[in-house]
Amino acid sequence: MTKADVISEISDKTGIDRSDVQASVEAFFSIVKSTMADGENIYVRGFGSFVNKRRARKVARNISKNTAIVIDAHYIPSFKPSKIFIDKIKASNKLN
Q: Which string of DSSP letters, residue by residue, matches 31-54?
């Protein structure tokens, strides 16, 4: 399912104009990106959490040049689904 599919489905189920739904979805994604870039996490009860995970400094290998390179500590965005979300997926008959 793509973002356009999600927008269409929300518009169909709620009766809200497609352009208004698209603006809302785009605003949500923009807020998530900017908030996480500022170092904050986002918690959506019943859905999950968007969190920044810290990756430690490590030594990696460049196989083509046979050299070692150092990758500094950094943060990556991550999503952790809530228990309700996980239980709903586990109970789904379409995935089994």
A: HHHHHHHTT--EEETTTEEEEEEE
